[in-house]
Amino acid sequence: MKSRNRASIAHTIRRRVLLAHVLVLVFLTTGQIAWTQVFQVGGGSSSLFQASGGSVQVQAQNYQGWFGIGSLGGHLRLGASLREQWRGSTFTFGDEIIPFHLPSDVFEDGHYFTGRGVGISYSRERLSLFGFGGVTATGFNVPLFRAASAENGAGALFMDFKLSPKLRLFSRDIISNRQTTINGAEWKPWAWLKTSLAGGVGANQGYFASGVSAERPWITVKGAYIAAGDRFRRVVVETPLNSEPDRENIMVTLRPRPFFDFTAGHLNFLGPAPGMQPGIRATVDEVSANASGAGFRFGASLYKSYVNGTSTEGNLFSVGRDFAGRVQANVYLLHSTSRGLPSSTSVLPMVREVISPRFSLLQTVNHSAGHTSVSFGGDFLSNFISIGVQYQTVYSPFQTGNPFRQVLLLNLRFHPFGNFSVNASSYVAPDGSVKYTTSGQTFLYRDQPTQNAPQRFGIPSYIVSGRVVDEDGSPVSGAALRIDGELAFTNSDGAFFVRRKKARPCHLEVALADFLVPGAFDVVSAPTEVVPTKQETGNAIVITIRHKKAP
Questions:
Q1: In angstroms, how far is the first alpha carbon of the chain from the final one?
Q2: Global pTM value
Q3: Which of 6, 130, 187, 321 has the most CB atoms at less than 10 Å from its CB?
């Protein structure tokens, strides 16, 4: 009887959630708050993400929102959000990505969780407030739509108050199935030096953090000490499970000359386990150097990590050179060894030939574990079509019989007319199968004049735009960026942009956990704050990332 009652309650909740999402969709498509609305409609399917579905986004003068619906892994997923400005405050209804930053986050400030409910943000010169009531949620972000599923009831109140230009107090409080209360202060005596203290509880676990960071033209120093319980979480959610800096951490980067830099660090991490099991602690020591001279680029990195009593060492060496501004040649040597396991060595030569600003060729050779993979490819860009083609010979260890496969990989973006565009891409999975993703999108406009005179609505003219590239300058598609809590993804050219009504500074972070491309990445360079500019001004930013080097 109790199980039937619980099932009935769960069914009622799901019906109410579905009804709420439908109401948001009806409001987005029929609301009269603004006389003009701009719609972005998209959809498609992907065997890579096992997803199919679509979404509608709407932008109007006083509000913006989106609605997404689709199938993900065989399950129906829904998501919706409505954001409205009213009397200097921002109200959000539905799904929302809630950043959870602490000024004591010296090494990383990408923590967040997804909430479904009602949120309000208020900001003035000295005081910033954020309140939320509803439930935590598991967010699903695929190229076709956004959605979420509810988890635990939660209420949040975040506050920042500037006592003076140099001193700021902060508080982060969450009431849920486990409580979080973290308070502290940040002191910035000079523009190049910042210190902070924080303490309290996170998910009913004790927490203390102190941090310092100094940035000068020739040296950067970051240090922190964190004491936390082994079940510490900022908020208890199923995803994302973010690791936390733990115990002593220090990183020093020296730049004595423009052609040389040197970095050394000692870092400790606490990796959360599913549920509320004790987290896993890990330690990483690293030393790296980069130099350039006589037209060559040199790099070397040495890593040593300790996890669960097992140590692993990894080395990465690289050399590269550009020839006549049209040929880029690089060679990478990777070597790793772990206690009790055979060592691994890989050699990766890479050559890129720039035939014209719109046309380039790429050749790579990968030799690892006695096997060699050869890859050929290229890129072509025009106003109407962008094509990237790679004809590869790959080694698939899960293939029985002959493990080598020859596959044609394609990235296509077709812009035939107006605002309509079609995207298609393929990817080789570890089992040797070829996966695909296809999607399309367009913009629709609705204009309703007043009785007295036609009232025109302009899309917000301030934008934050830029590109995400790797260390070789190649665009990275599917990279995720969070700009003032709004998640944006790069297209096949590595480009992204979001619109803003005003030229107020926006917080920017590279959301590594939400990347749509396989693999792990590190951030090489990225601003933490950007100022929107007029669309005609341009001023695009460049963010550089690299594939994470496995110790």
A1: 53
A2: 0.69
A3: 130
